[in-house]
């Protein structure tokens, strides 16, 4: 899988036993001073505790949540997805933005709010460190926004070296209208995963009754979580956010299962 640290335990040589070392001692040498049992137990327990802590650190799996968000709708889903990922023991969600392709003048003209500096930009090379990835983006005529496409276009070296092969990935999206691409935006993006040999992980109908709610407008599909942005002023509903959290939890469970297989 990736290099998030959870799938490949480190291997260390065990120290030579005291019995083996004693064979090389001079038979006339004085006998070693015995160590009190209590002291030995304390040191043994400390060593065991340190080893356990070290193993827990190594076992932490990483799901990268990589997104582009112009007006904050996709970012809102990303934050709830992270909550879902973090709820699975041994798995951690990490938020990243893809680089912006528009200049400041264009962004100001479009009245785009300042970015949260607490979420770093990601480079293509960093994807290899993830054990799984969820990509989020708004739609542009039924497919991903240019900013996310530019990021995928920058992964050529990873494709050449086959560094993302077998890594699980999924999508979440934002559209302006009900017929604006809640499904097409996700399934047209599958081509990016296919060329890398990544494993597409849809949520299907695992959200249960929430997938069948018809009493209010709801984004999302079997491909992944989604939100309707309208003219940009509509905020994600609690159902849309709950579906995003479910996707994070579901993806984390899949990643964990694959790494333990």
Automatic annotation (TrEMBL):
Organism domain of life: Eukaryota
SUPFAM superfamilies named in the record: Flavoproteins (SSF52218)
EC top class, as a word: oxidoreductase
Cofactor(s) the protein needs: FMN
Annotated EC: 1.6.5.2
Region (Disordered): 1-41
Catalytic activity from the UniProt record: a quinone + NADPH + H(+) = a quinol + NADP(+); a quinone + NADH + H(+) = a quinol + NAD(+)
GO function terms (MF aspect): FMN binding; NAD(P)H dehydrogenase (quinone) activity
Pfam family, one: FMN_red
GO cellular component: membrane
Residue ranges occupied by any Flavodoxin-like domain in the UniProt entry: 63-251
Similarity comment text for this entry: Belongs to the WrbA family.
Protein name: NAD(P)H dehydrogenase (quinone)
């Amino acid at each position: 899988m990736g290099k998030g640290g959870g799938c490949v335990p480190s291997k260390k040589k065990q120290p030579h036993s005291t019995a083996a070392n004693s064979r090389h001692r001079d038979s006339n040498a004085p006998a070693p001073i015995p160590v009190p049992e209590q002291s030995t137990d304390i040191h043994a327990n400390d060593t065991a505790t340190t080893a356990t802590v070290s193993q827990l650190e190594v076992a932490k799996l990483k799901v990268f949540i990589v997104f582009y968000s112009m007006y904050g709708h996709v970012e809102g889903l990303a934050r709830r997805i992270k909550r879902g990922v973090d709820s699975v023991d041994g798995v951690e969600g990490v938020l990243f933005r893809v680089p912006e392709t528009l200049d400041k003048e264009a962004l100001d003209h479009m009245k785009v709010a300042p970015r949260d500096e607490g979420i770093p930009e990601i480079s293509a090379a960093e994807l290899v460190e993830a054990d799984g990835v969820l990509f989020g983006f708004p739609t542009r005529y039924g497919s991903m926004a240019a900013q996310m496409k530019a990021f995928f276009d920058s992964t050529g070296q990873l494709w050449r070296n086959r560094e993302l092969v077998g890594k699980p990935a999924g999508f979440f999206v934002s559209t302006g209208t009900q017929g604006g691409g809640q499904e097409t935006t996700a399934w047209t993006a599958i081509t990016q995963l296919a060329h890398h040999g990544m494993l597409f992980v849809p949520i299907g109908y695992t959200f249960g009754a929430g997938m069948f709610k018809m009493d209010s407008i709801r984004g999302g599909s079997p491909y992944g979580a989604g939100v309707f942005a309208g003219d940009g002023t509509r905020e994600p509903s609690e159902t849309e956010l709950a579906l995003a959290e479910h996707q994070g939890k579901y993806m984390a469970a899949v990643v964990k299962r694959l790494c333990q297989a």
